[in-house]
Specification:
3 domains, 6-stranded antiparallel sheet, two-stranded antiparallel ribbon
């Protein structure tokens, strides 16, 4: 037997075997620390899968309402100018970009709905998740100016879900394998780490973006629900309860900044259930007070995946052997690398250097996978009223607003402002259309609105001329200032360029981009 030599001072160096044992113990402790925080229950993943699939189906059905205007060649988003809004970035792809025809967009939208149905049922779950991600990302990019943060969030959740065992329980796949009752097991992998972080960083980024005077003074929610017209009828009523708005504003800031940290740092089941319930109630409150489409439903769905096993009555057992979420080495490495890129993208977007482009080695994979981490929703809520109208002169002499289904046009702000538009996608389009990036689409919006109206009305009510006008009226520090811009006309007679309105928006805090 070999005996380790002693140093002159009498100490004995650690043997190589002992050094290897210490490294192994540190690795085991690190793995256990990560597992406690990032392992997810299979039943929670199944609940997430069912809810996400249902949302995909509902979203596809709701988009059919505007299919002739948003997915066709002569609609409001013609393919060539829409691609220009993306800056001709080859990494920004969409299956709906392959053929410039309505049937292509219809096929992709149908694929989203069918994949969502398969996902909800748990039939061919892995393939359904891949198709759902590709179709949802394609639809989102095909209708970019009419999408919100919820659409992007759902896309990122679907991407990480491709690496997770969504169909391990409560699914047709599990029933076919005879594993439908696999209760209490969890899965842990680089994909589960990515999914948990993806849910939490949305709130953290939104909270960091709110660290400004608008939120710290307690004015943001009141502005968003009233002058910015994001509020529902209940939200508008709430905006009148001045005594309540400041505590609510500060409460939202605290929820977004503190609760994600509590969830991650203290992995106790009861605390995690409490945090998840707080966020679910938070999203229900958003749905009740604000016009945000499916954003609240997507947020609730995200938290279903993070529920601890204690919610399902039986405690989460140690991971099954083998782990149902164990990834092949190549898939695990790819998922880990993309998680690293997404982390860099998140940090880039919450630092003062966010205006600088990401290095291509990071930016290109994020664009290809739809993992861009821009979550500064409602970061700055500027003290200005803004609205958009599409006044049209009809053959019978009437002046109507084509954006509001033919409502009479008045000289003042339309009742409800942006909130009087058909639904949240038109609401979002109206906010983005005046921005320089999307302004090139305005003439196409005008032409498509006129064609759509004429196709549905008789000769006496046909559109003879149409304008799209954007108005900003200052309040508080900008009281009395009103700026109006002609975005587009039909027939096209040219529009104003960048001028006083754009400078006013810059001074007021980025104008329509301030609330997203």
């Amino acid at each position: 037997m070999k005996v380790a030599r002693r140093h002159p001072d009498g100490s004995c160096p650690i043997a190589p075997a002992a050094q290897g044992g210490a490294w192994l113990r540190r690795r085991i402790r690190c793995n256990a620390w990560l597992r406690r925080r990032f392992a997810v229950d299979l039943r929670s993943l199944a609940a997430f899968r069912i809810a996400a699939g249902t949302i995909l189906v509902v979203d596809a059905l709701l988009r059919v309402r505007d299919f002739p205007l948003m997915f066709t060649t002569d609609g409001i988003f013609p393919l060539a100018p829409l691609r220009q809004t993306w800056g001709a970035d080859p990494a920004v792809w969409s299956l709906a970009f392959l053929v410039d025809h309505a049937w292509c967009g219809g096929l992709v939208l149908a694929a989203q709905g069918l994949a969502g149905l398969c996902l909800a049922c748990g039939w061919r779950t892995r393939a359904a998740t891949i198709v759902a991600w590709a179709a949802q990302l394609s639809v989102m990019r095909r209708t970019l100016p009419a999408t919100n943060a919820g659409d992007a969030w759902l896309g990122t959740l679907l991407f990480w879900s491709m690496f997770l065992p969504l169909g391990a329980v409560w699914s047709a796949d599990a029933a076919r394998r005879g594993a439908a009752g696999r209760a209490g097991s969890r899965t842990f992998s680089s994909a589960s780490i990515a999914l948990v972080l993806q849910v939490l960083v949305v709130y953290l980024a939104a909270g960091l973006a709110k660290l400004n005077d608008t939120w710290l003074t307690g004015e943001a929610i009141g502005r968003a629900l009233s002058i910015h017209d994001h509020g529902t009828s209940f939200g508008t009523w709430l905006a009148g309860a001045g005594w309540l708005l400041r505590p609510l504003t500060w409460g939202v800031l605290g929820i977004e900044l503190l609760l994600p940290a509590l969830y991650l740092l203290f992995p106790r089941p009861r605390l995690r259930v409490a945090v998840a319930c707080c966020f679910i109630l938070f999203h229900l409150a958003i749905q009740a007070t604000m016009s945000v489409g499916l954003f609240a439903a997507i947020g609730i769905t995200a938290w279903l995946a993070l529920l601890p096993g204690a919610v399902w009555q039986t405690p989460a057992a140690a991971d099954a052997d083998p782990d149902p979420g164990r990834l092949p080495p190549l898939a695990s490495a790819a998922c880990g690398l993309l998680l690293g890129c997404a982390s860099i993208g998140f940090l880039h977007n919450v630092t003062p250097w966010q205006s600088r482009p990401l290095p291509a080695v990071v930016g290109v994979p994020l664009a290809l996978c739809g993992l861009v981490q821009e979550w500064g929703m409602f970061g700055v809520v500027s003290p200005t009223e803004q609205w958009i109208q599409a006044p049209a002169l009809l053959g019978d002499g009437r002046r109507v607003d084509l954006l509001r289904n033919g409502a009479p046009v008045g000289a003042d702000r339309p009742g409800g402002g942006f909130g009087s538009l058909p639904h949240h996608r038109w609401h979002k389009l109206a906010w983005l259309l005046p921005r320089p990036r999307f302004r090139l689409l305005a003439p196409h919006v005008a032409a498509a609105l006129a064609r759509d109206w004429n196709a549905r009305h008789g000769a006496d009510s046909r559109v003879e001329s149409l304008e799209i006008r954007f108005v900003v009226e200052g309040i508080a520090a900008h009281a009395g200032q009103r700026h109006e811009q002609l975005l587009a006309t039909w027939p096209d007679r040219g529009t104003e360029g960048r001028g006083n309105l754009d400078r006013f928006l810059d001074d007021a805090g980025s104008g329509p981009a301030a609330a997203r």
